[in-house]
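Continuing the series of single-chain predictions for the mutant panel. This is the parent chain; the variants come on the following pages.
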Amino acid sequence: MASESVGADASRRVPGEAHRVQSVLLGIDQGAALVGPAAGGFLLQWAGPGGMLAAVGGLSLLAALIAVRAPRTAPRVVASAGKGLRVGWSTLWSLPALVRLVTGLVLSNLALGVLEAAVPVLLVERLDRPTSSVRIVWSAAAAVSLTTIALSRYAITRWGLRAVGRLAALVTAGSFFALAGADSYPAYLVLVAVFMAADGVLAVVLRTLRSRLIPAHVFGSTLSVTVMILRLPYPLAGALVAVTAPAGLGRVIVVCGVLQCLGLVLAFVRPGRRGRHGRGRHRRALEPAGR
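Parent structure:
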């Protein structure tokens, strides 16, 4: 939340370049997610648990020191947690475009959560692959996703936010549906990598839209509410996979794929036609960057 708040502030300083800021931030997240496990394994091997925990503590302290030294860009407003939640909820429901975007993100996260929980089960139980094959799949997917996230800012600059978002949504949905019928390890490897690559680009697009739609003076409280909502699909996805036999996971993937398609259509529908508040602002928020 802190990272995205700072990113939104930076985006407002460079109009038309918000997608570049979000691409860099998401690239940092993905890069850390790729390097972190490898570094943790190395530290466990050569320094033991104590050395790894000392490294984690040192990195946390360094991050805190950097954050303290960062200049404040706006006066700090202290409010109670309850008031912040009320402000966030009221802001969310007053912006129909943001409601549609959050709904699309929720359904997309449900599909992502099902994928993350189901792929290890499918590889180990259905294809009788060793657990190491799961690590290979996710490592390859993370590397491909990191590359596409880095390239997405150039594509958005050239073709616009909506066009790139629609293409990424199409690829995401197509690869997710194809996973339901995959029957070999190479197919899972390729399809998961394609899905995660498109999902990474989609995340850049949707985060950019969210940073444009939420007013600056209530960004933190509204973002906190949306983040809480967006976390809800993950335990539901885990529960769905837990109660479903491996043979039935294909049907679960298909259903979640349909829901994801509906959510992405809802997220990318042109806003402002029936909304009551801020029609022009919502429409401009979804226009291609740089136009």
